[in-house]
Amino acid sequence: MEKLIIEGGRRLTGVIRAEAAKNSVLPLFSASILTDRQVVIRGVPAITDVLCMAKILRELGASVRFCGGDVVIESADACCHEIPSSLTRELRSSVFMLGALLTRFRRAVIAYPGGCDIGLRPIDLHLSALKRLGVCIREREGYIHCSCDVLRGAEITLDFPSVGATENVMLAAVMAEGRTVLEGAAKEPEIVDLQRFLNAMGAKVRGAGGDIIEIEGVSTLHGADFSPVADRIEAGTYLIACAVCGGELEVEGVRAENIRLLLHKLRENGCKIHTKNDKIRIESSGRLRCNRRIETMPFPGFPTDLQAQMTALNCAARGSALIVENLFETRFKYVPELQKMGADIEVRGRSAIVRGIPRLHGASLTACDLRGGAALVVAALGAEGVSEVTELSHIDRGYADLAGKLSRIGASLRRVP
Ligand code: UD1
Q1: Which terminal CB of the chain, N or C, has fewer other CB atoms within 10 Å?
Q2: CATH class entry, domain 3-19+230-416
Q3: To test the ligand 1 pocket, which listed residue (121, 305, 371, 397) has its Cβ within 8 A of the most ligand atoms?
Q4: Least confident of 9-23, 77-91, 137-151
Q5: Which CATH topology does 22-226 take?
């Protein structure tokens, strides 16, 4: 089992280029089975969620080749519509395969999805939206069986702007008969990216980024060569790390409008932020003020995927902060680990009250989920003394070469067996 050994207290200085967004690449992989032509996705990060999604596509009969940072997918020979539980348990995003499998095969069987253990992650919105498109759904022994004779466009309203449900509707409606109007859609940049990708394949989708997405079914889709949007969560994590450690960091490739609220919060902390085109520059003295309140919301609100990292930041800042998690139920599981470092945090249901102390100290830490794991690394980089972080498989799901990238900007950390 590998671990990260982190010596805190180094300033971070330099340039980091953001990878393609994990949360965009995963649905694009699903979308690639909608055509029997070749699909090329550029600049795909080497993270285990992507490798797992590649395994799922291969299981279906597609060919997936990694060439440099690019991925070439050919699914002309895909013939299987069933995803085994061993794979869905590893990766919750396998649920995004439902819409694409239904478009391609008119049927889909998947085991109930897994992924991060951050509270109940129901898929009722996915299933009721698919029913509106004419899909018949049965649940048996942990498996969801979906089938339809034909997919028919429909008017669908989501009670909550679920990212995955929005993507599933797009993937199921893109070649359905007639027109689909999806109201209450998620507005995340990754949804806009999926629309761009589908349209590059010849689809007729518009409205992504707003409340209503309209999809006119087409009869075929062709191949595409596509560069996904940059990973705003990865970029945000490095910006937060620099804020905590002090230093000057430029993150390239990510547009400020995709993490506007994070930048606002970092300014509240006392950091200087400059943005130009797709570059974001942060300057931090390392002496920070707490945010009064951070509340996670669907986009364009504060992203739940940066909540843990910002909690870590607030632990060693002046004042106190209220962190409210509105999206997932148990997304404070990393808190006891931060407490081992001396953090003063009180969790009450969906809120955490952080009382800042001058400095955290090094400790032996265990990552319990992807973003919670990243938060521990951020905290350890700013702490006094040495920390070690284990259970790195959680972090590897979403951060490519985290240790290498941080070392190159001045952090003292190494990955050891
Ligand atoms: C996606 C992201 C994840 C991010 C999340 C919220 C991917 C691969 N993952 O996850 O990183 O944290 O968006 O921005 O893109 N819900 C239901 N019923 C449903 C579906 C969702 O009640 O059928 C609830 C969930 O329990 C949760 C909330 O809606 O409370 C948000 O979920 P959703 O937007 O669907 O997130 P994911 O697509 O799972």
Answers
A1: C
A2: alpha beta
A3: 121
A4: 77-91
A5: UDP-n-acetylglucosamine1-carboxyvinyl-transferase; Chain (3.65.10)
Distances (CA, A) of 205 to 65, 157, 192: 28, 17, 10
Please tell me whether the overall predicted TM-score, pTM, comes out greater than 0.70 for this model: yes
Who's near 391: CB < 8 A, 6+ residues apart? 1, 366, 367, 368, 373
Give yes or no: 116 in active site.
Answer: yes
Q: What is the mean pLDDT of residues 246-262?
A: 97
Assign 375 to helix, strand or coil. Answer: helix
Cβ count near 227 (within 10 Å):
15
pLDDT > 70? residue 115: no
Q: How far apart are CA 243 and CA 228, in angstroms?
A: 27
| Residues of each domain in the chain carrying CATH 3.65.10.10 | 3-19+230-416, 22-226
Distance 279 CA to ligand 1 centre (A): 28
CA dihedral 135, 139, 145, 146 (to 10 degrees): 10
**Is 86's pLDDT higher than 90?**
no
Q: How far is the CA of 327 from the centre of ligand 1 (A)?
A: 7
3-state DSSP call for residue 293? strand
